[in-house]
Structures are given as structure tokens and as C-alpha cells.
């Protein structure tokens, strides 16, 4: 079974969210889709999986409702369901930053197409920032990128204010998985006085789809927020999996580590694992294997 996976977002004013939520739920169910959609007054953000015709119909519905095709839409494939269920949620923000000044509709950075990204990175005056969380950067990143060591995207604000200076860092390029975090991160930096801020249009996923592997500056794979865990060039799924205990992405090498126990622990969470939680996870694992 080959499923189509659609990742999309658009910053666009939305109203009457309590009515929009059940309408989107019904449309997804009708088209046989699973995944997550977040809606807020500032826009829509989601990833859905299902049959190709169902995805196409849903994108048409979303385009009529909120012009989603005027934002970012990326399609890929999966051989198994990357989501177990469907969730439509109303949120204060479609990507949480808690920075009112970070408004992409008012003050955004400059888009850079994937085909032009390598040339920008060749500029020695450019500071390259990875705006993702540390568990994502572990899976892969661009050569030469600065990893701020974020545990949450909201931590990006403190990193900028403590580690960067608009007078010194006059040309900044940033990237994220699909582009949405960079929309807000670039707007935040522009609001803080950074003169030139660039971000990769369509994010890492678009770069991996468009740029030939032989020309790529990407190192490793790209973490994704679904059951595939990570994808590589051409958006093909890779050998990464995830720890059930903590959700941390696990490489084939991690699976061979002594701290790894299927369904229970991995090197990232073993030190925080209490005997009670370990017993609970082992019982769950036993029940799953017995079913």
C-alpha cells in the first residue's frame, strides 16, 4: 500500500474556528485521511496521509477555505500509515513562539529557493542557523550550521537575544523542516533589528526533493513528525526509528546501544527512567507482543 503524505501551512487570518474545526474533521474522514491539522487565528498547519485521491480532494477543500496552495504544500509517499489517527486542534498559534512581534505578515525574512541555497551558503559573511530542536538536529543538518541547542522553539528568542548581535551578524540564513518555523524566526529577528535575514523556501524537505544528492550540502537525514521518523534525499524514508519511552529519534547505531530496550528506553532517556515507569513500559511491550 502506497500512501500520499501532504505537509502544508499558510499564515492567513482565519475566523470562526469552532465551526471550521468540525468541518475539517468531517472532510478528512470522508476522504479517508489520518494526521494532524492545527488551526489558529493566524493560519493553518498540518500533515495528512491517505490515498492520493483523498489527499488531492482535501487539498482542494483547504484551498477553497483558506488558500492553502498559496502557502507551502509538499507531497511525499509512505508505505505504511505514518499516523494512527486524525486530530484537528484549535491553538493560539500554528507554531508556538509567544512573540507577538514575530508576525510574518508584517515583517518577514527573504525567501531563498532551494536551487539558490548553496550559493547563499557559500558567502563567508552568512551566519547559518538551524532553528529546529536538538533532537531534530541530531538526525541531520546543513554543513556549517550553528545549532542553538533548543529544547523548544520558544527558546529561539533567548538564543537570539543572548548570542547574536544585529551589528555583528548582518546577514543571517536560517532553515527548518518545512519552512514554518523560519517564517516566525525571521520575523522575530527582523523585529530585533537584524538587517538581512534569509530563509529556505519550503524548508529542508523541499531542498531534499529539489537538489540532487551529488550537489547537496545536507548531511544526514531529516527528522519528520510522523511514523517515518526521518527521510533522506528524494524524501525516501530511512532507517531511523523512535524510542517509545521518550520519543527520541534512534539511529541504527542507537538500537545497538546497551541502554536501548525495545518499547522501554534508549540512550537519551535511560538516566531519567524510574523503576515504576520501566515496569509499566515493559508490561505494555509484553502486551503488544502477545497481541
UniProtKB/TrEMBL annotation:
Signal peptide: none annotated. Residues 122-216 form the Rhodanese domain. SUPFAM superfamilies: Rhodanese/Cell cycle control phosphatase. It catalyses: uridine(34) in tRNA + AH2 + O2 = 5-hydroxyuridine(34) in tRNA + A + H2O. It comes from the Bacteria. InterPro entries: Rhodanese-like_dom, Rhodanese-like_dom_sf, TrhO, TRHO_N. Keywords: Oxidoreductase, Transferase, tRNA processing. SMART domains: RHOD. One of its GO terms (biological process) is tRNA modification. The keyword Cell cycle does not apply. PROSITE patterns: RHODANESE_3 (PS50206). GO terms for molecular function: oxidoreductase activity, acting on paired donors, with incorporation or reduction of molecular oxygen; transferase activity. Pfam families: Rhodanese (PF00581), UPF0176_N (PF17773). CDD domains: RHOD_YceA (cd01518). Its EC number is 1.14.-.-. Coiled coil: none annotated. Catalyzes oxygen-dependent 5-hydroxyuridine (ho5U) modification at position 34 in tRNAs. Belongs to the TrhO family. This is tRNA uridine(34) hydroxylase. The gene is trhO.
Amino acid at each position: 500500500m502506497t500512501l500520499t503524505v501532504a505537509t502544508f501551512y499558510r499564515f492567513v487570518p482565519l475566523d470562526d474556528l469552532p465551526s471550521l474545526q468540525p468541518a475539517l474533521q468531517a472532510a478528512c474522514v470522508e476522504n479517508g485521511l489520518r494526521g494532524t491539522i492545527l488551526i489558529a487565528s493566524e493560519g493553518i498547519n498540518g500533515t495528512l496521509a491517505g490515498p492520493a485521491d483523498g489527499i488531492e480532494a482535501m487539498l482542494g477543500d483547504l484551498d477553497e477555505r483558506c488558500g492553502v496552495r498559496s502557502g507551502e504544500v509538499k507531497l511525499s509517499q509512505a508505505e505504511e500509515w505514518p499516523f494512527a489517527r486524525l486530530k484537528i486542534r484549535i491553538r493560539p498559534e500554528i507554531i508556538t513562539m509567544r512573540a507577538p512581534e514575530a508576525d510574518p505578515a508584517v515583517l518577514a525574512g527573504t525567501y531563498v529557493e532551494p536551487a539558490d541555497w548553496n550559493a547563499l551558503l557559500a558567502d563567508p559573511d552568512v551566519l547559518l542557523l538551524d532553528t529546529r530542536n536538538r533532537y531534530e538536529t541530531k538526525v541531520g543538518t546543513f554543513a556549517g550550521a550553528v545549532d542553538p541547542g533548543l529544547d523548544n522553539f520558544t527558546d529561539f528568542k533567548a538564543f537570539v537575544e543572548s548570542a547574536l548581535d544585529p551589528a555583528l551578524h548582518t546577514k543571517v540564513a536560517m532553515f527548518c523542516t518545512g519552512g514554518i518555523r523560519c517564517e516566525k524566526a525571521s520575523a522575530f529577528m527582523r523585529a530585533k533589528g537584524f538587517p538581512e535575514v534569509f530563509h529556505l523556501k519550503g524548508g529542508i524537505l523541499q531542498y531534499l526533493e529539489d537538489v540532487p544528492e551529488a550537489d547537496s550540502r545536507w548531511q544526514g537525514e531529516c527528522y519528520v513528525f510522523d511514523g517515518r521518523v526521518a527521510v533522506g534525499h528524494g524524501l525516501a524514508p530511512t532507517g531511523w526509528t523512535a524510542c517509545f519511552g521518550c520519543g527520541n529519534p534512534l539511529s541504527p547505531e542507537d538500537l545497538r546501544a546497551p541502554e536501548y530496550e525495545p518499547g522501554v528506553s534508549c540512550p537519551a532517556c535511560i538516566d531519567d527512567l524510574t523503576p515504576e515507569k520501566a515496569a509499566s513500559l515493559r508490561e505494555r511491550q509484553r502486551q503488544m507482543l502477545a497481541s
